[in-house]
Specification:
By secondary structure, this protein is mainly α. The protein folds into 2 domains: 52 residues, Arc Repressor Mutant, subunit A; 134 residues, Orthogonal Bundle (Tetracycline Repressor, domain 2), CATH 1.10.357. 67% of the residues lie in helices and 0% in strands. α4 packs parallel to α7.
């Protein structure tokens, strides 16, 4: 008699998300298939749809988790440091390098259910944490438009992380966070402390 798959799973949602993160890390977002993820989790092909409804639902869950992890990383930067915004940029780069699959999905808005309440909440929290770094600067250092200063700082960290993850930087870097910190200290577009 052939073995039947075990359809009971202790934490199917986590198993599917973990399998999806593995696929994204190795093959990219385009390789995601709920049917394949069900096979990897050893459940029926319909089981993942119970938690995520569709591929966009799964990617939305991954993006939500990513924004929560990012917000936690940014919130851990001490407020009393004289270089808080720079240190937040470093944490942003470290987050991206530690969670490349999350990072790949988080900003691919066309692949997500953008109005998902959990995603909206997580994205807003991460945004507030990023903004707090700019708001903590003295007015003379952040300039007349804090929003634009924040956008410039975010662009620097995000761009550096994306270039590092894609292998587009000229030479492999043993410590990208240290390199980013040095770049900010030497060539800041935003007048960071």
């Amino acid at each position: 008699m052939a073995a039947t798959p075990n359809y009971h799973h202790g934490d199917l949602r986590r198993a599917v998300v973990s399998a999806a993160l593995e696929v994204i890390r190795s093959d990219g977002v385009a390789a995601i298939s709920l049917r394949d993820l069900a096979r990897r989790a050893e459940v029926s092909h319909a089981a993942p749809a119970h938690h995520f409804k569709d591929k966009a639902g799964l990617l939305t869950a991954i993006a939500t988790e990513g924004f929560e992890l990012l917000a936690d990383a940014l919130a851990a930067v001490p407020a009393d440091t004289g270089h808080r915004l720079r240190d937040m940029g470093v944490r942003y780069v470290e987050f991206a390098l530690a969670h490349p699959a999350h990072f790949e999905v988080m900003f691919r808005t066309r692949l997500l259910h953008g109005d998902d309440p959990e995603l909206v909440t997580a994205r807003e929290r991460a945004s507030r944490e990023l903004s707090s770094g700019v708001e903590g600067l003295p007015a003379a250092r952040r300039g007349p438009d804090a929003r634009r200063a924040g956008l410039a700082a975010w662009s620097l960290a995000h761009g550096f992380a994306a270039l590092q993850l894609s292998g587009s930087l000229p030479a492999p870097d043993d410590d990208p966070a240290r390199t980013f910190r040095a770049l900010i200290d030497a060539h800041s577009v935003v007048d960071l402390p």
